[in-house]
Amino acid sequence: MPYRISRRTFGQLAGSLVTAAALPFRMFAAPSVSRATATGDRRFPAGFLWGSATASYQVEGAVNEDGRGKTVWDTFSHTAGKTHNGDTGDVSTDSYHRYAEDIALMKDLGLKTCRFSVAWSRIFPDGAGQPNPKGIDHYRKFCQALRAAGIEPWCTLYHWDLPQALEDKGGWQNRETAKLFADYAGYTAGKLADVCSHFMTMNEISTFVELGYGNGIHAPGLKLSRGKLAQVRHHAVLAHGLAVQAIRAAAPHVKVGSAENLTAVVPVFDSPEHVAAAKKATVEENAGYLTVMRTGRYTDQYLQTLGADAPEFTQEEMKAIGSPLDFQGLNIYTATYARAVKNAKGYDIVGNPASYPHMESPWLTVGPDALYWAPRLANECWDLKEIYITENGCSSADVVAGDGHIYDTDRVMYLRNYLTHLQRATSEGVPVKGYFLWSLLDNFEWADGYDKRFGITYVDFKTQKRTPKLSSEFYRNLIARNSL
């Protein structure tokens, strides 16, 4: 999913099963369980869920098949100048047809779970009205194939691909879209509940709102005023809350959560005053999204900062937004540093110098300690019972070497360092129960098109050949040992 802008900007805006022979080369033998025991101090908790994540528009392709309706990303990517090289998700990795091959890759990795998203317009081509049985049938078959491989499906109901028919009626500017999303979410969860037990309402509300309606670099490409943007923000979190209620009504035995890319605040120093400041910042820097979703109220500072631009809302809506969740997914890529200062907020956000290191994507600055501090502080702020890292990973300038392999040592470095900090969190009792690596495959990277690769599996987009990278070997061995 990834694609980011500086969260300082947000502050300003808001206030084919493959054979064994075709599977990856072995860089080194997977250690035995007994060897893993020798590194017990770096083990993850027993039963820790290791998975991967993908999203519908980024991998499926087949945009005109089986009754799928047009989405804002179909429109946006086919508009000149909106994506790198004019790239679109029309075919992408063709996972709609090749999901059996992708599941074989997951099984070879030893994945316990797979996070995927349903395309709203495959279920309701126009966002509402008569459901499309071919859409539900596809996702049921996908979930059944995962479970047959011993992999538990985790479903995200919205990963940015709003039906274009709803955008034509105002999209997320229209309060009615929130209600229609709840209808879709309840219907879909009800139809999939016997083959999927975990549902996330939305992925990264802050990203599709701020980039889609704030600065316009994502679909639908709008640049709204501060007040109108705040109202879009409210409608999106309201949609989440109403969807939680609809899912519980339609499928009471499933678990419900969300996947949010919170501003991952890290104290500049691990000292009491800076940790306290980072905790305050975690609440306020996420006020329009995760904070209100967990508490059912906007913070005073958030509303005061917006002033006359604050959104219109009712107490009934706020209660819905704060609907209790069974788990919280956190998407974490970068760190935002905070320090204690004597001002009204009690903290200040420290910007990064121009020399600060980043991965292939310029926005993806390297902050491994975010995978410790973000879940820890989120738990302290909102008493989270179950946390899952629903996305973490990085882009790399991947090239196929002369021997046919992809040696993405920078991605291995990134994952090793970040996961070291996550293991620290779990060892200290932070209730992180699983990790979904972004991503299983190289895919359509939104406005970056196919220029940035985030997969641990290299995809030749001309032939659709999948080639596991060095990072795939790293992840396989980590899963086999359940330890770093």
Automatic annotation (TrEMBL):
NCBIfam families named among the record's database cross-references: BGL
One annotated GO biological process: cellulose catabolic process
Residues annotated as signal peptide: 1-29
Alphabetical list of Pfam families matching this protein: Glyco_hydro_1
Keywords, in A-Z order: Carbohydrate metabolism, Cellulose degradation, Glycosidase, Hydrolase, Polysaccharide degradation, Signal
GO molecular function, one term: beta-glucosidase activity
InterPro entries: GH, GH_1_N_CS, Glyco_hydro_1, Glyco_hydro_1_beta-glucosidase, TAT_signal
Reactions mediated catalytically: Hydrolysis of terminal, non-reducing beta-D-glucosyl residues with release of beta-D-glucose
Broad class of enzyme this protein falls into: hydrolase
Organism: Terriglobus roseus (strain DSM 18391 / NRRL B-41598 / KBS 63)
Protein name as catalogued: Beta-glucosidase
Family listed: Belongs to the glycosyl hydrolase 1 family.
Keyword field contains Calcium: no
Lineage: Bacteria, Pseudomonadati, Acidobacteriota, Terriglobia, Terriglobales
GO CC terms in record: cytosol
Coiled coil: none
List of residues binding substrate: Q58, H159, N203, Y333, W438, E445, W446
